Every structure is written in C-alpha cells, then in structure tokens.
Amino acid sequence: xxxxxxxxxxxxxxxxxxxxxxxxxxxxxxxxxxxxxxxxxxxxxxxxxxxxxxxxxxxxxxxxxxxxxxxxxxxxxxxxxxxxxxxxxxxxxxxxxxxxxxxxxxxxxxxxxxxxxxxxxxxxxxxxxxxxxxxxxxxxxxxxxxxxxxxxxxxxxxxxxxxxxxxxxxxxxxxxxxxxxxxxxxxxxxxxxxxxxxxxxxxxxxxxxxxxxxxxxxxxxxxxxxxxxxxxxxxxxxxxxxxxxxxxxxxxxxxxxxxxxxxxxx
Length: 266
Ligand SMILES: [Mn+2]
Prior knowledge:
The protein has helices at residues 17-37, 63-74, 93-98, 129-139, 141-148, 152-172, 181-190; strands at 3-7, 38-43, 78-82, 102-103, 107-111, 114-119, 195-198, 204-209, 212-217, 225-229, 234-240, 245-248. The protein has 266 residues and is of the alpha/beta class. It starts with a strand and ends in an 18-residue tail after the last strand. It binds manganese (II) ion. Manganese (II) ion binds at residues 9, 45-46, 84-86, 120, 122, 200.
C-alpha cells in the first residue's frame, strides 16, 4: 500500500557548497523512496533556507531538488508545500510550474479518514508577539513589492542575512517544554484533530496526547527524519541515505509528569 510522507526543515542553501551537495544527495535519495512508495508528500516548511522568487526569476542552486519534486508530481504523487519562516516568500512558481500547491498558513486536511493539522511551528512560543509582528511585516505586500524592485544579485545576500537573523532569533527561543508547540497540539487535538504535524524546532518528537498524536518532523541538518502514514499509524523515521532504507528513530519523549492532561471533547 502506498504511504503518505511528511518532512520539513531541510534549509537548502544554509551551508557551504560541499555540505549542501551532500545534503542534496541525502534528500534526493529520500525523494526517490517517496517516488516508489508514496501517494502524497507534505513539505512542512523551510525546505529552503532562503527563497525569494521574482515574477520571472527563481533562486539558483536548487535545480535538482525542484526537478525531483516535478518528477514526483508527474508520477501522480500529490505534493503539498506549507511555507515556513524561511521560505514564506513563495509565490506562484510551485503551483504554476510544478503543480504543487503552496499553503501560506497552517491548515487541516483529512487523509485516509484521519484528521490532520499542519503548522510549520513558528510564532507559537507563548510570548512571541515580537516575531509575529516581524512576520506580518515581512509577509506584507508592500515589503515584498519593494524587495522585488531590487536586483536579485543584491537581494540574495540581504535575505540570507535576514534568514540567519531569523534563525538566531528563533534559535534563542526555548524549544523545550514551553515552546508553545505541544500546547498548540493539545488544543488542536481537543478540537477533534487526530494528528498534528509540525517542524521548525529541529528536533524530532512523537508525543501521544489522549487519542491523538503530535509529531515534530525534526530536520535534515542533523536528524534526516520524516513521518510516514499508512492509513492507520503515523511513524517517525530516520532516512539512511547510504543504505537507502528507513530506520526506526529514537523517540525523545516528553516527561508525562510535566504535562497537563487535556480533556478531549467528544
Ligand atoms: Mn522554521
């Protein structure tokens, strides 16, 4: 039976060329696995460390990954892309040229009878009003328009700088028990969702909440983790690019004692 795959936080373009080449190979081998075994693929944000597309120009350097995603779509695999905080300047290149819908905001979707909710995970920290305000400005039509007037050779370094600043900023956030993500997942599950999927924290996590599950996808910088759904179970796995097989990942669990029980509404 064909499976549904989920991954996030590859941050293509983050490192030097050699490291990026190696990361690209890892990701491409995983995408080949999806090509053979998947019916759908969800990218839960931050595929790119920096992405800004002009009306007629897209950033260079990601050609192999983009063309692999195009192949998946041609093979009939539905690919979905939820923008993260590093790639929210996505416009219509993915939907128009590749047939990959881009979601700018968190969304829910029923897959094989289970109710999923997807959120990249940014801006959930309990007192993160500063970031939410910054995001509003960065995503505003005026900022994007003004930015698009600058020559691409100039905007790339500026954006890379802002992307590093964003990582530094979110990197300082406490991604522990108070990251706001678990609380958010609890809320969504109490609203009736079965599975809540997020990324952004760069640490894989599979956490049961009453009858639901919160999965954090980890990243492709240190963990190579992804989730797989077979219609019944959601599983967090680790991609071994050399062996080209998935391995069961260690599951860092959240201490139950620190969790507040959440009542599930019927
Ligand atoms: Mn992120």
